[in-house]
Design a protein that fits this description.
The strands form four sheets. Strands 1, 2, 3, 4, 6, 8, 10 and 12 form an eight-stranded mixed beta sheet that branches. Strands 13-15-21-18-19-17 form a six-stranded mixed beta sheet, with no helix packed on it. Strands 5-7-11-9 form a four-stranded mixed beta sheet, with no helix packed on it. The chain has one helix and 22 strands. Strand 1 and strand 2 form a beta hairpin. By secondary structure, the protein is mainly beta.
C-alpha cells in the first residue's frame, strides 16, 4: 500500500467563515480539534481548534472565544507552531467590549476621555514589545504582532459587567511566507483600493495611547496613492473650536502620519502630520480634501496621546477618529 503524505496547510472548514488546518483524522483527534470537512483530496480532514480563558495553543488557525462564564483577567497563551513562525495575525471576527471613557468635563485641563478605563485588550510579548491597548468595538479589524519565542499572551481585563464578546482567529505566519507583512505593521492592507479605520471607529471614539502603522502593499505597476475620508469622517484633535484642518507642526498630540502628503503626488510642498476636524494639506482650511503621496512604502501612521484637552470649556476636542478610503494610482 502507499502512504499518503500532505502538508498541514490552512483549509476552509465546512463551517462558514471558519478556517482550520489539514490533518489526518487521528492527528486532529490527538490535537484536540474538531473535524469539519475534508482536505488534501479527501485524505485529510479540516481540523478546527478553539480555546478560551486560561487556555493556550501552538496550532495555526486557533479561535480564541469568549463565554458567559469568563472572569477577569482572561489570559490566552499563543506559542509558535514551529521555529519558522515570525508573526501572529489576530483577526477580530467579533470584538465588542466596554467603550473608552466619553466623560467630557467642562474644563480645559487634560481629561481621561478616549482612555480604556473599564475594559482592555492587550497582546504582549516577553520583551515588552507590546501592541497598543484597545477596547470598544473592533469587529473585522485585525492586529499583527511579532511571534515570541517564549509565547505571546492575549489578555482581556475588565472592571464592570458590560458587554464582553470576542472571537479571534489566530493565524501563524511563516518567516518565509511570500505574503508576510513587513515588520512594524500593526495592520496590513492589500489591493489597489481599500478602507482604513481607527480602532473603535464603530464605537464613535478613538482610543488613547496609540502609536502604530497601517501598511499598504504597493501593487505591481502602481507608484502613488491617494487618501480620502469617507463622508468627511476625519476628526482627530485640533486646537480650533471650529471645524478646521491642521497639518505639520500644528499636530502635536493626536494625528496621523502620511509621508510626503501633498495636494498632488510628488508635490514639492508636502507634510507628514495631519489632524483636526477636517483632512487637508492647508492649515486652517474649513474644507476637507484628498491627500496624495508617492513616497513608499505606503503607510498611515497613527499617534494618539494619553488624554484629551478641550479647546475651551464649551468646546470638546475632536475625538471620533478616522475612516479613510485609499486608492493607488498606476505608474505613468
Amino acid at each position: 500500500f502507499n502512504i499518503v503524505k500532505f502538508p498541514n496547510e490552512g483549509c476552509n472548514s465546512s463551517i462558514s467563515n471558519v478556517y482550520g488546518v489539514c490533518y489526518t483524522s487521528s492527528e486532529c483527534s490527538t490535537y484536540g480539534g474538531t473535524s469539519s470537512g475534508s482536505c488534501a483530496s479527501g485524505f485529510g480532514v479540516c481540523c478546527t481548534f478553539t480555546g478560551g480563558c486560561s487556555g493556550s495553543t501552538s496550532l495555526n488557525n486557533t479561535y480564541f472565544k469568549s463565554s458567559d462564564s469568563d472572569s477577569s483577567p482572561c489570559l490566552f497563551s499563543v506559542c509558535k507552531s514551529n521555529d519558522d513562525i515570525c508573526q501572529i495575525r489576530l483577526n477580530f471576527n467579533t470584538f465588542d467590549i466596554a467603550q473608552p471613557s466619553t466623560n467630557n468635563p467642562s474644563q480645559i485641563q487634560p481629561n481621561g476621555r478616549t482612555q480604556c478605563q473599564q475594559a482592555q485588550f492587550l497582546a504582549t510579548t516577553s520583551d515588552g514589545n507590546n501592541a497598543p491597548t484597545i477596547c470598544g468595538t473592533n469587529t473585522d479589524y485585525h492586529m499583527i504582532v511579532d511571534a515570541d519565542d517564549n509565547c505571546n499572551t492575549l489578555s482581556f481585563t475588565w472592571s464592570s459587567s458590560t458587554t464582553r464578546s470576542w472571537n479571534i482567529q489566530i493565524m501563524q505566519i511563516s518567516c518565509d511566507a511570500k505574503w508576510k507583512p513587513p515588520e512594524g505593521c500593526l495592520q496590513y492592507f492589500t489591493g489597489t483600493t481599500g478602507y482604513i479605520y481607527s480602532y473603535n471607529y464603530a464605537g464613535g471614539t478613538h482610543l488613547a495611547t496609540q502609536d502604530y502603522s497601517n501598511c499598504i502593499r504597493t501593487e505591481q505597476g502602481y507608484c502613488s496613492i491617494e487618501y480620502t475620508p469617507v463622508g468627511g469622517n476625519f476628526k482627530i484633535s485640533g486646537p480650533a473650536p471650529t471645524a478646521t484642518a491642521n497639518r505639520g507642526d500644528t499636530c502635536a498630540t493626536d494625528y496621523i502620519f502620511i509621508s510626503g502628503g501633498g495636494s498632488t503626488a510628488g508635490a514639492t510642498t508636502n507634510f507628514d502630520r495631519f489632524c483636526g476636524s477636517l483632512f487637508s494639506v492647508t492649515d486652517g482650511s474649513t474644507t476637507g480634501t484628498t491627500i496624495f503621496a508617492n513616497k513608499q512604502p505606503f503607510q498611515v501612521g497613527v499617534f494618539m496621546d494619553g488624554n484629551e484637552v478641550n479647546p475651551s470649556t464649551s468646546v470638546a476636542e475632536s475625538s471620533v477618529g478616522f475612516y479613510i478610503y485609499y486608492a493607488q494610482t498606476a505608474c505613468t
